[in-house]
């Protein structure tokens, strides 16, 4: 019992921070959780870590989506279309991760973190498109959004990050969706993608262990998500996102350095 309480005391606050920040920027928290899990659980397989992360992302996205629904920020037409387009890719990504060794997964994720960090330094998620326009909902944008969401779903479920850290910039920069709408809609899409990924992991028998840690983190993110949604109405988030970018770069370098030193 004491060990379980200590584990809860360690993981629940981490979940609160991830839930608040992930909802604030619409990223779902997976881009923060997976690096943390890689560092604190060095002996677990990529499949186990991604299954844990995506389950937590689901609880975060679900809680955040409920908050954004009350605020009226979700573009439901785009959200449903992008969810339907991404679900097959989500299953493909989950199947692929079962064939990746930890020795390959760590440097791959490290390189991705470095890339995301550099991108976020120059293009914070909270930035508005140059002309300030939003999504116009025309057919080419809808088609492009569906195709992009399908590919993002494969990468995000493969790496266990949920995809929001990629999806939000895509919605803002490519589809010219207003940032507040993009973060809310991304959370809506993440709910269905993460649920699909988690269900696939369960069918494949991935939750034989790690369920307690997952639940401790899930409790935290569900507490933090409403806080992040409330903060999103008051903060632009550029400085916060740039600080995240620095953290991602540092973790990425550590993961790559670990391989070089081994």
Low-confidence stretches: 126-140
Mean pLDDT across all amino acids: 79
Compute the gyration radius: what is it? 17 Å
Beta-strand share of residues = under 5%
Order of helices and strands: HHHHHHHHHH
Helix content: over 70%
Give the number of DSSP strands.
Answer: 0
Tally of distinct domains: 1
What does the model show?
This protein is an all-alpha fold. The protein has one domain. The longest helix has 26 residues.
Concise overview:
With 262 residues, the protein is mainly α. Helices cover 79% and strands 0% of the residues.
Key terms:
single chain, 262 residues, mainly alpha, 10 helices
Write the layout of secondary structure elements.
Elements: H1 2-25, H2 30-40, H3 46-71, H4 76-97, H5 102-122, H6 139-159, H7 164-174, H8 179-203, H9 211-232, H10 238-261
Helix pairs in contact: 1-2, 1-3, 1-9, 2-3, 2-10, 3-8, 3-9, 4-6, 4-8, 5-10, 6-7, 7-8
